[in-house]
Write a structure and sequence with these properties.
This protein is α+β, with helices and mostly antiparallel strands and about 550 residues long. Helix content is about 50%, strand content about 5%. The chain starts with a helix and ends with a strand. Bound molecules: protoporphyrin IX containing FE (HEM) and 2-acetamido-2-deoxy-beta-D-glucopyranose (3 copies). One 2-acetamido-2-deoxy-beta-D-glucopyranose binds near residues 248 and 249. Cytochromes P450 are a group of heme-thiolate monooxygenases. They oxidize a variety of structurally unrelated compounds, including steroids, fatty acids, and xenobiotics.
Length: about 550
């Protein structure tokens, strides 16, 4: 066959090798993405994708928007490919509820992503493929520790709980700081101060301490643009296309560096806790000895309850008391227990700061809304005492404003990626075990059918004709996930946003420098950010 011979001489050996490799790779990609679908079920539909890169270009800069558009065409359960990895994308409240709540066990997994391994040396409870008994035990631990140091009441304070106490202290500092900035500069970027205040609240609960607004060490790990969110967002390309991990100076390098800094920052605090924890134990023993001698019974009972200063202490105590093995079903290493505090700290400042920061953006762009919130605060609380958690039910307009901020910004557009823990059938679609699943909260919160005019910012939509919050509608705003992986800090997050806003707005009015425009274009990531705005101004409210 002369023609074949001609072809072979024409191609060099390397070219031939390249052709064969390409062919095999293409074949492998097709094979890898094809699954044996059981009879009666369908594979989720989706658009045609490029070989090797899949739908990366379709996702673009704003995956939450492009996937919402795709869901119009393909429905609430659709499938795309990122690199060669198939990903199921869920939209729509009913479908997402079906998956995460009714079939919660099937969808509670997390994919084994490259970026997850870079967080807390791969020890994270949140960003970790484990969804078995060890994860469940750690999650319970996080919930209990959090409860004791946030919504429980502090016996030594007049505040209704630790959280209220911490927030009112930080809000007070913040108001003074803002006034000082106004006097000195005349305008400022509120995010950079807000984030320290919010970090201080979670620091107080986790580590029993706070930091100054100019502390460079804290600033270097909390004053972020979106270095963390960019990499942990749904659809970060390097998670799916390994070659991208080796680009010099990519966002991955910044991310690794940041994680190292956070890790050593917290490691230092934990070491300090171990050191002083033992000391307190020793003191307690002395007190016990003392009490045996009949010297001080009351001091003894105080010391044995009061030496757990914060969440870190309570986790250390858990390890030392072996309280964890009561059920003996899982054994957690000490590392796995104490590192839970990393998850809480990490999840506790960026989310809440982003929420309050978006709120401020909506306030300055909707001065009428800000005035209504302040009128409500004046009527219900007045200026002579500070707002408390117990005021929340009497402040429906503020509540409606917070709900509308959550809905309209949808600043966590997708939950953290999920994965299936077994082969499953969702609404007639076959989804095999281990499939990566993106859950679009943004889509629910902007669903035309649910909201009518999703793009308008209108707190009033949550108020009934009698002026109370429409409970049924408010539960359709989904920002904390649903089901087994639902946010552990939801109550704290909601309370904290409420307290900060009530305390700030009672005292000060926000605006931007005349002639300056604010840019509210969301920047994609695990949390959506807005561009920093240097032109905020505050004015103390005249009484
Ligand atoms: C407004 C504030 C907050 C919002 C909107 C928010 C939202 C979320 C979302 C969407 C998830 C992922 C759910 C999923 O993967 O399905 C999550 C997980 C989580 N959140 Fe929050 N969160 C907030 C505040 C907090 C706070 C204050 C804490 C702790 C102090 C916290 C701790 C966690 C933890 C530990 C997880 C991981 C749960 C797991 O993987 O099992 N969050 N949050
Ligand atoms: C905080 O971050 C912003 C945005 O990255 C930056 O412009 C600003 O200088 C930072 N401020 C401090 C005090 O680190
Ligand atoms: C990477 O970026 C940092 C600052 O962004 C710079 O200092 C450094 O030189 C860069 N390194 C390389 C290899 O380009
Ligand atoms: C032991 O397990 C049962 C059932 O899983 C649970 O109800 C109980 O609270 C657990 N006990 C402890 C101390 O965790």
């Amino acid at each position: 066959m002369p023609s074949l011979y001609g072809l072979l001489t024409f191609l060099s050996a390397t070219e031939l090798l390249l052709a064969i490799t390409t062919f095999c790779l293409g074949f492998w990609v097709v094979r890898a993405t094809r699954t044996n679908v059981p009879k009666g079920l369908k594979t989720p539909p989706g658009p045609w994708g490029w070989p090797l890169i899949g739908h990366i270009l379709t996702l673009g800069k704003n995956p939450h928007l492009s996937l919402a558009t795709l869901s119009k065409q393909y429905g609430d359960v659709l499938q795309i490919r990122i690199g060669s990895t198939p990903v199921v994308v869920l939209s729509g409240l009913d479908t997402i509820r079906q998956a995460l709540v009714r079939q919660g066990d099937d969808f509670k997994g997390r994919p084994d992503l490259y970026s997850f391994n870079l967080i807390i040396n791969g020890q994270s409870m949140t960003f970790n493929p484990d969804s078995g008994p060890v994860w469940a035990a750690r999650r319970r631990l996080a919930q209990n520790a959090l409860k004791s140091f946030s919504i429980a009441s502090d016996p030594d304070s007049s505040s209704s709980c630790y959280l209220e106490e911490h927030v009112s202290k930080e809000a007070e500092y913040l108001i003074i700081k803002f006034q000082k900035l106004m006097a000195e500069v005349g305008h400022f970027d509120p995010y950079r101060y807000l984030v320290v205040s919010v970090a201080n609240v979670i620091c107080a609960m986790c580590f029993g301490r706070r930091y100054d607004h100019d502390n460079q060490e804290l600033l270097s790990i909390v004053n972020l643009s979106n270095e963390f969110g960019e990499v942990t967002a749904s659809g970060f390309p390097a998670d799916f296309i390994p070659v991208l991990r080796y680009l010099p100076n990519s966002s991955l390098d910044v991310f690794k560096d940041l994680n190292k800094k956070v890790y050593s920052f917290m490691q230092k605090l934990i070491k300090e806790h171990y050191r002083t924890f033992e000391k307190v134990e020793a003191v307690e023993e002395q007190v016990v000895v003392g009490s045996r001698l009949g010297l001080c019974l009351t001091l003894c009972s105080f010391a044995s309850q009061g030496h757990i200063r914060d969440i870190t202490d309570s986790l250390i105590e858990h390890c030392q008391d072996k309280k964890l093995d009561e059920n003996a079903s899982v054994q957690l290493s000490e590392d796995k227990v104490v590192s839970v505090v990393f998850d809480l700290f990490g999840a506790g400042f960026d989310t809440v700061t982003t929420a309050i920061s978006w709120s401020l953006m909506y306030l300055v762009t909707n001065p009428r809304v800000q005035r209504k919130i302040q009128e409500e605060l004046d009527t219900v609380i007045g200026r002579n005492r500070r707002p408390r958690l117990s005021d929340r039910p009497q402040l429906p307009y503020l509540e409606a404003f917070i709900l509308e901020t959550f809905r309209h910004s949808s600043f966590i557009p997708f939950t953290i990626p999920h994965s299936t823990t077994r082969d499953t059938n969702l609404c007639g679609f076959y989804i095999p075990k281990g499939r990566c699943v993106f859950v679009s909260q943004w889509h629910i919160n902007h669903d035309q059918e649910l909201w009518g005019d999703p793009n308008n910012f209108r707190p009033e939509r949550f108020l009934t004709s009698s002026g109370t919050v429409d409970k049924v509608l408010s539960e359709k705003v989904i920002l904390f996930g649903l089901g087994k992986r639902k946010c552990v800090g939801e109550t704290i997050g909601r309370w904290e946003v409420f307290l900060f806003l009530a305390m700030l707005l009672q005292q000060i009015e926000f605006s931007v420098s005349p002639g300056e425009k604010v840019d509210m274009t969301p920047i994609y990531g695990l949390t959506l950010k807005h561009a920093r705005c240097e032109h905020f101004q505050v004015q103390m409210r005249s009484s």
